[in-house]
Amino acid sequence: MWNPRSNFQFTEEEYNLAKSRDKLPIKCIVCGRVSLVRKAKITAVMSGKLPESAQYCSRKCAAPANTYKKERIVVTCSYCGRKFSTFPCRARGRRRQKHWFCCNDCRLQASRELIQEYNDSRSTK
Ligand SMILES: [Zn+2]
Ligand SMILES: [Zn+2]
Questions:
Q1: Are 25 and 35 within 8 A, CB to CB?
Q2: What is the model's pTM?
C-alpha cells in the first residue's frame, strides 16, 4: 500500500526494499529537519492507523499547539516593577486587568495599600 505523505523523504522502491525494522527518512513538517522513522510506523501512517505519526522530528515539534499555549509573555509587576513572565492564556482571561503582580506578596501588599488609600481618602473627607 503506497500512500505517501508529502513529508516522506523516500521513494516507493526504498520503502519496498526496507524491512519493517529499517528506518526511513521523513521531513519534520514543523522545522524541516529530516528524521528517521521505522518502516512499521510508516506503514501504519499510510494505512491510516497512526495518522498523526511520522510528521515530526521530536516531541517538541509534535506539540506545536501545546508549545504555543506554553509560550510566556513578559509583563511588569505593578507593585515592585519587576519584570516577570506569565502565560498568555492567563493574560487573555484578564485582559481588562491593568495590574500584574509577580507574586502573591506583591498582590497582597498592593491590595493592602489600595485599601489603605481608600480608607485615607474617606477619613480625610
Ligand atoms: Zn522538527
Ligand atoms: Zn512584584
A1: yes
A2: 0.51
Residues 52 and 80 in one domain: no
Domain that includes residue 76, residue range: 68-123
Rounded distance between C-alpha atoms, residue 105 and residue 71, angstroms: 24
Which ligand has the minimum distance to the alpha carbon of residue 99?
A: 2
Residues 31 and 72 in one domain: no
Quote the ligand 2 centre to 77 CA distance (angstroms): 5
CA–centroid distance, residue 117 to ligand 2 (Å): 19
Number of domains in the chain: 2
Q: Which three cell numbers stand for residue 89?
A: 492564556
Mean pLDDT by 10 residues, the chain (125 residues): 94 96 95 95 94 88 63 86 79 62 92 89 75
Closest listed ligand to the CA of 79: 2
Rounded to the nearest whole angstrom, what is the distance from the C-alpha of residue 112 to the centroid of ligand 1? 48
